[in-house]
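Predict structure. Chain length: 180.
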Amino acid sequence: MSPVRPLGRRGGESFTVPRGARVIVGDPARGSGLRIAVVVARFNDRITNRLLLGAFGVLEAAGVRAKDLAVVFVPGAFELPFAARRLAASRRYDAVICLGAVVRGGTPHFDFVAGEAARGIASASEETGVPVLFGVLTTDSARQALDRSGGRLGNRGADAARAGIEMAQVARGLRARRSA
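Prediction complete.
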């Protein structure tokens, strides 16, 4: 068996596959030719704008053209799945990236919103066959959200964009495999 290292990975282990096996792997650094939609929650915009800027940086660096990018704003994280499902079902986009921030408060509101956003985003992807990425922060405090939106712990919007590019390529590879 020959080792295969997924493109765009920093560190980590190699994967070993049988010689001659077809390998489908995306490269998060190569977004040229992909059409990407980004759905952004306006609630907690101090955080979600930072996530959006992180996503834009990755998409631009990977070669996704502005004309191949759609950005849709919704009121909050609870509304992300509706827009994501519609965008994915349109078949105009190779991937849909959902960005939001749900910060825990003193009520069970957090659990309902975070849980339904996660469930709905996963469902949108499963129902449409289009990768729909979960770039929603679920944190205990605003400080944690800032740390994860371009602060000391990176930018989860950028991470979701990288995953979106990679999954769009994987989906294309899986479609090509099915038609071959």
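Summary: The mean pLDDT is 92.
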